[in-house]
Amino acid sequence: MQLKTDDQCRLTSPDLFKPNASYEAERTPDGSIKLVESVSKPSRKAKFIEEDGEVFLDIGRPFDLEEFDKALEDYL
Fold first, then answer.
1. CB-CB contact of 73 with 49 (8 Å)
2. Residue 66: helix, strand or coil by DSSP?
């Protein structure tokens, strides 16, 4: 099967690629390109907890501002 990119360097093939999926790309020494579908890890939900009158963000990993805002909205 031969595939061709468009004028914006996009490669499409409904037979090979799922819509809106992410792929890891690797160029090998022989010039070929290897594409592997990325497996997303299930995200944990951020939540606020209360202990001894203090409030903590319980997440156990770095988080972004959007996740913080959502957790705060759910808490209030």
1. no
2. helix
